[in-house]
Design goal:
Helix 1 packs across helix 6 (about 170-180) and helix 6 packs across helix 7. A five-stranded parallel sheet has the order 3-2-1-4-5, sandwiched between helices. The chain is built from seven helices and five strands, in the order βαβαβααβαβαα. The chain is α/β, with parallel strands linked by helices. The radius of gyration is 17 Å and the shape is globular. Helices cover about 35% and strands about 10% of the residues. The protein has a single domain (about 5-215), classed as HUPs (Rossmann fold, 3-Layer(aba) Sandwich), CATH 3.40.50. Strand 2, helix 2 (about 45-60) and strand 3 form a beta-alpha-beta unit.
Amino acid sequence: MSQAQNIAVVLMSGGMDSTVCAAQSRADGFIPAGLHLRYEQRTAARELRAFHAVCDALGISRRLVVSTEHFKQIGGSSLTDSAIDVSDADLTSAEIPSSYVPFRNANILAIGVSWAEVLKARALYIGAVEEDSSGYPDCRREFFEAFQRTIDVGTKPDTNIRIHTPLIELSKAQIVQRGLALNAPLQHTWSCYQNEEIACGRCDSCALRLRGFQQAGALDPLRYAEKD
């Protein structure tokens, strides 16, 4: 098996889940190539910094940063539209929060498949979580199964790219534990939707992360303005 064929494109936001996913791809025997999307979200600069720090720590030299500013032009999400407030976390709510970016994962996967096909990569890793997440519709297993069929139909006959979602059935606590077991550089990650210096501790992403570390019995290396 050639080195090129053993590449896995890993979708890396700079957050905890995608970082654990990148570490998992290495443990699975792949050589990760990091793909980061800058879609003019509120914390774009901080997430980009986290992405590069994580790649440095994991020894990922092949990196691609793609500008997808059309998400901001489309709007509809508190992450890209400053007129929409980032909602305070409500981890018991069944409603899709304001932070949902419409059909984002489909856009990200499409770019990842394009790069993977050029690299002759065999895998595409995404750190989606179905159970312990904000309820985003494009984080469900059935979505990835449908997209896998799209890849199979829409790429060259000799292309063989499989979507890997190693965290999809895990809780945030289990993701923390997996990350620690894999020695993932969680200290370099960024999860806050709202702030770029000190994490707010109030948004969905902060609350899920804080609860995950608490339930895992581990210390979160991030600083927070609030820890409710």
